[in-house]
Amino acid sequence: MSPQKTAAPKAASETQLIARAQQGDEEAFAALFETHKRRVYSLCLRMTGNTAEAEDLTQEAFLQLFRKISTFRGESAFSTWLHRLVVNVVLMHLRKKGLQQVSLDELDTSQDEPVKRDYGDDDLRLMGSVDRIGLARAIRELPPGYRTVFVLHDIEGYEHNEIAEIMNCSVGNSKSQLHKARMKLREWLRDDRQRTQLDALTAPAGPPDER
Amino acid sequence: MAEERFGESAACWRFDAELPAYLEGEAAPQVTAHARECQFCEVVLADLEELRSASRALPREEPSRAVWANIRTALAAEGIIHEPVRAWQRWFGFLGVSHSPAPIGALAGLLILASMLLVPSKDLRRVGSIGGASEGARVAIASIGYPGQDSDLLRTVQDLEGSFQARRMSLEPSVKAIYEKSLESLNTSIRECTESVQREPANILAREYLLAAYTRKAEVLASALEFDAR
Amino acid sequence: MPANQVPKEATSVLDRYLKANARERQQSWQILFLFLIPAGLLGAAGVAHLEKTIETIANPRISLANLQGQVVVRGWDKSQVHATWVGLSPRVELDTEVLPHKGPAEKVHFSTHVLDPLVSGKDCAADYTLDVPVNSSLEIRSPQGSVQIEKLQGDASVESVGGTISVTDVAGHLSVRSVGGNIEIIRPSGRVEAYSITGNLHFVSPTSSKLRGSTTSGKITYEGDFAPGGDYTLSAYSGDMEILCPPSASFELNAKSVRGRLENAVAITPRRHAPSPPATGYSLLGTHNTGEATVELTSYSGTIRIRQQH
Predict the structure, then answer these.
(1) Alpha-carbon dihedral of residues B141, B146, B147, B153, nearest 10 degrees?
(2) A105 assigned to some structural domain
(3) pLDDT tier at B158, thresholds 50, 70, 90
(4) A33: domain range?
(5) In a 10 Å sphere around its CB, with 0-12 CB exposed, 13-18 middle and 19+ buried, how is residue A110 labelled?
(6) Are strands C241-245 and C220-223 parallel, antiparallel or unpaired?
(7) Rounded CA gap, A146 and A159, in Å?
(8) Selected residue of C272, C290, C295 to mutate for chain A interface (largest A Cβ count, 10 A)
């Protein structure tokens, strides 16, 4: 799903909202917030894994956007402009937290890692075992650069050309980072599944858990 | 061959190279063909497809209301937002009437008085509760899945509510206020849960809350009537 | 609120009366020195003060029905019930029923009886202070005004409409129900059930092995550990829920919400389960440390927060 694939009337009304917001109309700001809040917040939440941080970052991103709204001239889609700002805010935040992270201009261009292949692969198949909490945890384990591309593409539905514009990188880089992110997630989820199976095998015998 | 047994053949390497494009929706028939022959690569493909569908199923989260409240406060403090011109102000401005509240208030008063004289009296009578047996509530509580109990519970709540409405004015004002506030809270939960259950019949938690709300409402109404009887 | 502090709103009837009228204050001090005189004889004087001492068995059943005013019950190591009753208005009196009529009492019932059916509001108010055997079982119905219970080994049941209920150091089965009042339960060690519709629930340092709390629009706060093998169920509809537990707490968590948020700041190892997560809403299933206790938290639209005590 691409945020640019919107119906023409909706795009026209957003143009009107932006124009009104540029005049200081509170209702226009509120409407713009309402339209984009879930996407922005979801992005922040997937990137940080923490609801309080995600809310702070959402707030910061919208404030920066609204402060600069008078400078928006329509060169790109408003949502692209917004999400570029959000990604910047999030990555700056992660940088401040001291996490090892990749800047927007320095995406890893090393060779693709070989696919991990283990004997007994079938037993660790992910089919039917990827739950929401486990997946969210695995996403948080990704390096920030991989995490950003994965969240934007596989969760938020951006196309690679849009991600390239948001992250100021090439389409090729975006595709390459996405594949690496997916492989890393797969590896993490399989390792986690293996740990769970080992725990089940080594757990003391007792009545079956019915919960 | 040993290396094929562990998924390290040249065909597997080609599979690895074509896999990203295949997942992007590009044509790569050799990916699916090889997956049919190679158990290890088939697992890789299945895992990534499972991961993709799980990722797409992740819900969109919603921030709390505090976020907009904080943004609005900051924008107002920085002078970025201005008080909106209200629709009625624009309308009265069009009429040439002053924006001052006094003449507008007088006009509003006349309109209200006119409506009171024209609207049938029964519509003006205060409806004591919105938690009564609306059709929506009937359907929702019937869907909870406790055959027999749901209709009995609903009838009990209706009866109790009728008695309460008839006698609430005899309660001491401070006590009446407590009961009415609690019933309002319960009616809100009944309304919200009813809507949830109608929208998402599979939402077990909402259904449990709906049943609990009706049960508590019955308890509160019974308590109020017992209090009145003392 | 500190455990030993009476809620601010629980000013006694006597205090309110003394502050109100300086002239009548002189009369009321005279009245206080009169003991065991039926309230009817004091009608013309205003405030009535009674004291009774009743010999009981070691574990009597004590019940009390008040309308408005403060109720304080404390356990002590005597096989006696000592009751102090202060009625604001001459239109109320204290009724006492003791069974059996001879010998140590097995059941004692106190109630505030309204003499005039037209009386209402503060004229119905009466304050109780009871010292009861520590192994007593207790039943209190007090629609308005506060209830305070301390140091009881037996079971206790409290029903209120609007007053605050504060229970400290009760070891027996504790059941507290209110419509709009706040409930505070400190250091319970027996089974606990606490329900309010709009009031808040506050649990502090429970050692109970079974605890249930439910409110519709009030908040729930749980501060303390969870007993190994214990079962804790807390449910709020729109109010927020806050759990503050020590780092050593060991529990299995099942937290669910339809529309509210789940904010977790303790290390929970998520559980893997074959069925898919709920189609709607949020859930968190997992264990903290070794998962000795079972903690179930549900909310409809309130936020559930789990944090560590420091």
Answers:
(1) -60
(2) no
(3) confident
(4) 8-96
(5) exposed
(6) parallel
(7) 15
(8) C272
- With respect to residue B25, please indicate whether it lies within any of the assigned structural domains: yes
Specify burial of residue B216 (Cβ count, 10 A radius: 0-12, 13-18, 19+).
Answer: buried
Do residue C284 and residue A211 have CB atoms under 8 angstroms apart? no
Test C278 with B178 for CB contact under 8 angstroms: no
Residue in C307, C3, C302 with CA at minimum distance from that of residue C148? C3
User: What's the total number of domains in chain C?
Assistant: 1
Mean pLDDT: which of B102-106, B142-146, B179-183 is highest?
A: B179-183
pLDDT tens across A63-99, in order? 999 988 888 877 667 888 888 889 888 888 877 765 5
The answer to whether residue A47 sits within a structural domain is yes
Which residues, in sequence order, are bridge partners of residue A21? none
Non-local CB neighbours of A60 within 8 Å, separated by 6+ positions: A89
Candidate from B64, B175, B230 with C-beta closest to C162: B175
- The residue segments making up the domain with residue B39 are 2-56
Residue C110 lies inside a defined structural domain of this protein = yes
- How far apart, in whole angstroms, are the C-alpha atoms of residue A151 and residue B98? 54
pLDDT tens sequence across C106-155: 999 999 988 766 666 677 889 999 999 999 999 999 988 899 999 999 99
Does C223 map to a domain? yes
Distances (CA, A) of C191 to B146, B162, C142, C234, C243: 28, 36, 22, 14, 19
How many domains does the structure of chain A reveal? 2
Residue C7 in any domain: the answer is no
**CATH assignment of the domain containing A157:** 1.10.10.10
Q: Is the ipTM of this complex over 0.85?
A: no
Contact across the interface for C121 and B172, Cβ inside 8 Å: yes
Instruction: Report yes or no on B140 lying in a domain.
Output: yes
Chain C residues inside the 8 Å CB shell of B212: 214, 235
Nearest CB to B75; choose among A66, A117, A131: A66
DSSP assignment of B168-195 equals GGGS-HHHHHHHHHHHHHHHHHHHHHHH
Q: Are C93 and C42 in contact (CB under 8 A)?
A: no
Domain-embedded: residue C143: yes
Give the dihedral of Cα atoms A63, A66, A70, A72; nearest 10 deg.
100
Is residue A179 within 8 A of residue B23, CB to CB? The reply is: yes
Cβ of A122 under 8 Å from any chain B Cβ?
Answer: yes
Q: What is the CATH number of the domain that holds B145?
A: 1.20.120
CA angle at B49 for the pair B44 and B53, rounded to the nearest 5°: 150
Tell me which residue of A45, A37, A53 sits closest to A135, measured CA to CA. A45
SS3 sequence, B86-146?
Answer: CHHHHHHHHHCCCCCHHHHHHHHHHHHHHHHHHCCHHHHCCCCCCCCCCHHHHHHHHCCCC
β-sheet bridge partners, residue C80: C55
As a whole number of angstroms, the distance between CA C62 and CA A37 comes to: 58
Q: Report the run of H or E that residue A86 belongs to, with start and end.
A: helix A78-96
Neighbours, chain A (3 or more CB pairs < 8 A): B, C
Question: C125 or B225, which is more confident?
Answer: C125
The type of residue at B27 is: A
Alpha-carbon distance of C29 to C11, in angstroms, equals 18
CATH of the domain at A42: 1.10.1740.10
Touching B (3+ Cβ pairs <8 A), the chains are A, C
The Cα B230–Cα C4 span in angstroms is 33
